Structure formats: structure tokens, C-alpha cells
Amino acid sequence: MATDFAGAHDRHLSDAEHLENSARLSNADHLYGFAAECGLKALMTKFGMPVDPAGDPLRPNRVHIDSLWTRYSVYASGPSASAYQLDATNHFDDWRAADRYAEDGHVTATSLERHRNGAAQVDALVRQARVEGLLP
Predict the structure, then answer these.
(1) In sequence order, what are the residues at sequence separation of 6 or more whose Cβ sits closer than 8 angstroms to the Cβ of residue 31?
(2) pLDDT at position 103, please?
(3) pLDDT value of residue 104
(4) Any domain includes 121
(5) For 39-79, how does the pLDDT look when each residue is reduced to its tens digit (9 = 90+)?
(6) Total domain count for the chain?
(7) Quick check: pTM over 0.90?
(8) Residues 60, 1 contacting (CB under 8 angstroms)
(9) Cα–Cα distance between 66 and 43 in angstroms, integer?
(10) Alpha-carbon distance 30 to 87, whole Å?
(11) How many Cβ atoms sit within 10 Å of the Cβ of residue 86?
């Protein structure tokens, strides 16, 4: 299976929006995190992040969005990445992959908004990269 981070980003973001509109906030919140993670990994791959033959990141980049947000700057520091910067705030520092096991209702309106905004920031970079021909 070939890894398709950009496609996964689109899929997770769309599903997160549908789930949020259906008041399924816990799952929406979780998918906002995975959407942002996949979008950043798509960009990082283009900026030189090492991957295995299937396209999966090697360590130390084989992490989730709570850590990946800060790792992104390692690859977004070159000249080809100067137009693809994130703001300094890690919108996902309180997001955990293990939250998929949490009880329903643990997501607050504040955390959902913060994660949605972070995913939207990554989505804007992915869209820009598509317009500029960096991503399919």
C-alpha cells in the first residue's frame, strides 16, 4: 500500500466537518487532529522528511500531531518551504491519539475550536501547495 498523506488529509478533514455538523464532537475532534497530521506529513515529505519505501515517516517523525506540529519546523525551514509556515502556537498540544478511548463528551467547545482552527491552518497550506504544484 502506498501512503497518500494528502488524500488522507482531505478525507479526515471532510469527515471531521460532517461529524461536527452531526454533533459527534469527540470523533470530529479526533479527526481534526489526524487531518492536520496527514497534511503536515504530506508537506514534510515534499520538504525532505525521510520515509520508508511505502512512504511512511521514519523516526523521529513517526509521531502524532501533538508532537508533529513542532517537528514540522525542522522541514519547513528551507528555501522551498519558506511560504509554508505555521504559527508558533501548537493547536494540538492537548490532543492525544489515545483520546479515541475516552468517554463521549470529553471534548469541550474550546478544544474543538482550537483543533479545528489548527486543522484549517494546515488545510490552507495544503491548498496552497496544490495551487503551486507541490502536492497533487
Answers:
(1) 12, 13, 15, 16, 19
(2) 87
(3) 86
(4) yes
(5) 999 999 999 999 999 999 999 989 999 999 999 999 988 77
(6) 1
(7) yes
(8) no
(9) 17
(10) 21
(11) 19
Helical spans, DSSP H, in the chain: 5-21, 25-46, 65-75, 109-131
Q: Is residue 80 part of a domain?
A: yes
- Report yes or no: 122 and 9 within 8 Å, Cβ to Cβ: yes
pLDDT recorded at residue 79: 76
Instruction: Compute the distance between CA of residue 9 and CA of residue 7 in angstroms, rounded to an integer.
Output: 5
Write the DSSP assignment of 53-87 as a string of letters.
TTSPBPTTS---HHHHHHHHHHHTTSGGGTT-PPP
User: Domain of 41?
Assistant: 5-129
Residue 79 C-beta-side C-alpha neighbours within 13 Å:
0
φ, ψ for residue 4 (rounded to 5)?
-130, 80
Smallest Cα–Cα separation from 77: which of 108, 48, 98? 48
